[in-house]
Design brief:
- This protein has one domain.
- It has 16 helices and 4 strands.
- The protein has a 4-stranded mixed beta sheet.
- Helix 1 packs antiparallel against helix 16, helix 5 packs across helix 9 and helix 11 packs across helix 12.
- The protein starts with a helix and ends with a helix.
Length: 420
Amino acid sequence: MLEIAVAGYCIYFLVSIYTSFMQVDYVKKAKNFDAVILTPSKYKVAADYSVDSQKMSMLSTFYDFILFFIWIGFGLVALDEATSGFVGWQKAVVFIDLFIIINWILALPFDLYSTFKLDKKYGFSNMTPSLYIKDTIKSGALFLIFGSAVIAGLSFIITSFPNWWIWGFVFIFSIIILINMLYPLIRDKMFDKFSKLEDKELEAKIETLLDEVGFKSSGVFSVDASKRDNRLNAYFGGLGSTKRVVLFDTLIEKLTHNELLAVLGHELGHFKNGDILKNIGIMGLIMFVFFGIFGNLPEELFLQLHLQNEPYAIILVFMMFSPILSFFLMPLVSAMSRHNEYAADEFGSNLSSKEDLVNALLKLANENKSFPLSHPLYIFFHYSHPPLVERLKELGYTGAGISQMKNDEALKETCEADIN
């Protein structure tokens, strides 16, 4: 059984590395053509950032691959022996907490490089060492308190019910829904500073837009995201009575009122089309299947890992191998998501105008240095949103080199050769 799981992980690793390699090669070639969507200078910078990010991702993936075999080779046995003084839910909490903390420490160099070297090089990160340490301490405290409580609760369910995986699914799914409800409040109290919009004219326009589509929220807020990052973003956070509209201060600074309303109109399209509930339903279905699989694993797998078939080991196996299943399910989920994005674009452009949404998307791409072209295979596995080029085409935009890109034989031949 372990051989099958390891083979699945190796396939996941090879596909992940291959798609990243194809993406790097594709972007390097696309960089030499006329700029698409972005200004010529930002087009080349975005290409460089995309390549550097992919190289970083490939190195991290390879590093994780090595760690995976270290863990199943002797690491898990060593950790099991180190926590042998604990039993039941206490064993699960200590074992899983240590497993997560060790992995976090081992991955820390990549996070530090990404935050303080790569993102600063390209003008994204405003993170300071002191803020990074504060964020880390707060996140760690949340994990140790609430994460440990969740592990303890799941351990109790595993030992108390014959068909524990059904009740385990209900418990974890309920926790996820609760986290989504509380997320804006947690961010507000512990990490970000939420404030009412100073621009009352913009606030009135947003409230009118929300009323027009029947979206009830607890308010419209600006968040001081620029203290960490210069990227532009906005989101609808929370569920039920905690729903709120959150605008990054960077977004408010760079977009006009009409462009902001177009972006929010797109997000409201997801609300009006029921995409939020659909996504929750899909997530719940996938999670239920995962619990069904990992709740009925054969004893042989735990024997091969030299672990006891107990809560700590069951939770560990779930954590180690569920990302593999997720990776191969994501193309299907992402295909549905990309379809929903087109529909949300259509809704948003009807609420405002296609011109406003196009202008907003162009500004977002330029400010976020988002390279507009990707290899089809990479899109298939990794893109939950359609490529920006395709979104703009659907909105009727034909400027900035879009029209000639479709007929670019060099890139077309590259993709066909890679796929074949």
